[in-house]
Amino acid sequence: MMTNLTVRYLGGPTSIIEVGGLRLLTDPTFDAPGEYPIGSRSLTKTMDSPIAPAEVGPIDAVLLSHDQHPDNLDRLGREYLADAPLVLSTGQAEGRLGGAVRAVPNWTEVELPRPDGGVLLVTGVPAQHGPDGSEPLVGEVTGFVLSGDGLPTVYVSGDNASLDVVRAIAERFATVDVAVLFAGAASTPLLEGAFLTLTSELAAEAAKILDAGQVVPLHFEGWAHFSQGGDTLVAAFDQAGLADRLHLLAPGEDVRF
Asked: What are the protein's GO molecular function terms (predicted)?
């Protein structure tokens, strides 16, 4: 059942999800375009955020897929976390960031009180940021599933590149009303020739596996290491017969279900 679910895209992996009277922010990134170092390398941001952190408004929780890469948590994003009431993320992020960060291990739940007296369940789910065996290089990543009585079920993938992970989630959740999929086919010299996030074709296949009623892509533009973008997402979903489920938003736009 779909009711009162809004997703506002803010560029890159950043969005505001409003569901059950709560407002959740995904992977806060607000820095200006430029070069951002990561170890001996750097990532190039090519798009600005449509809003400043101060314009986000009240947030009940941040869903942080991981903290170790600047395209998922940048300088201004880290500053934003200092005032966030709750940040749900990985065990590694909790150890590094402290403060309001709380680890949500795979398949465990956190209950967020809703204004109507019910709860929103946030379930931590697996994410694999690259091919099999890549975690020692890329670090720990998590995804999330949002659910609750009378609410749509929403899957937020985080930086996941594995359809096996998607199949595991589909086995646990019979219904996924909206899939928020991090796409873009990210590729860097760290794992030459490998994709660190879903390709457009794999995003369409993930939507099929989940039987997702609606799909909102994130993290498919705004950084130079994305090898695919909005045009390839449109083509892949059209080829898969899922064009009517795809909601490709421009930064600052939202969709209500």
From this structure: hydrolase activity
